Each structure stands twice: as structure tokens, then as C-alpha cells.
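Record NrtR DNA-binding winged helix domain-containing protein, 225 aa.
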Amino acid sequence: MNVNSALISVDVVLFRLNKGTLQILAQKQVFPDGITLLSLPAGRIDPQTDHCLDDTALRHINNIAPFNVSYYEQVITIGNARRDSRGWSLTVLYYALTQNNDAENTPDKAQWVNLVKGLPETSLAYDHNRLVQQALKRLCNKVQYSTLPAYLLQQEFTLSDIQKAIYAILGKRPPMRSIRNRFLRDDILTRTGHLRRGSNRPAALYYLNEKVQGKLFDRLYLSTQ
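=>
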């Protein structure tokens, strides 16, 4: 790399829920010394194919596997001379959500990593642990006043599933009455007409209306358990 130029990249933290645990997608990267470490989906901007930074972020996810990205947004831009051994570097950080929880769709070159107390269970290369913290902080803030928890769920879900998704992210469980008051208004959800039956009372199944993507509410949850 030219000493008078900077390495510019886009890094993506892709979140999913798997059996109640929040996970991130990491790719296996072999370094010149032969050591294999995990890192976030990332890479340079391709002026020939990328019309905007969103295109770059989605392309680097799809380079690993064609995951169904249900939501994404830009988080922060970070740049300095210390984060990459090759020299001055700058990254535009995104986070994205997927409803995918099928292990068979994950290629050998990647793996899903559990988040434990806000950090990857397996440490990542470069400054990617810090990037995960930045993305998780944004997600934790936004799930408290938006429909984002539903974007981690399968196409059909219950109100209890929304509550469990919020708990997986925040470690706190909002009252069910708050979830009902928010999600069962303004045509945010549509009932499928089906029920999920189990050991408890049958629960109505819903799906999220596309027209309310990323809808924001006017306040945070007042209390959590």
C-alpha cells in the first residue's frame, strides 16, 4: 500500500438469533504467518459494481453466502493509523439482521459466533471486537424504540417471540403489555390465522407488514425485568 494512501473498507456485523442466543457471522482468514483467525465480513469498495456503500456492505455478506438480510444500517466511520498493520486505514461500519438460522447454509469458510456479555465468544482479528461492540450498542439502543426485534425472527412469529428476541439482545425482558401496545397497532403486524400450540395456551402467529419497515416508536420501554 502506498504510504500516502489509506486502506478504505466496509465492515459488517451480521446478527442472527439461534435458539435464543444472539450470534454474529465471522469469516475464516488465513494470515501470512499461516495462522487462521476469524474476522467480520469486510472488504474494499468496488467502483465497478457498488453504486453506494449499502451495495458494498451487502456484497461482502453475499460473498460468504446469500443470507436473507432483513434489515441493515450504517453505524459509524472509524479511521486511524493503528487499526491495521498495513498502515492508515478507514472503515465504514454497518450492522445487519438476518432471519437465517439454518446451519446448512453456512459455508466452511465462515461460522456463527455467540456473543457473551457483549463480546464474541471467540476473539476476532484486527479491531473487530471493538466494531462488534459499536454495532451491538446501536442495536441495543434501537430495539427499545423500533420494530427491529421482529427482523431477527422467522416469517411467522408470536408476541412472545418478540419478547424473547429483546431479551436475547438486552438481557432484560420488557412487559408483554408494552409489546402488545406497540406491535398490535398501526397495522404493524398481521395475524396469519394460525396458532402455535404447545404446553401453554395456543398463541396467535403474526407476520410483519413490509410497509412499516424499521418503524420507530415514541418512547423507550418504561420497565424491564
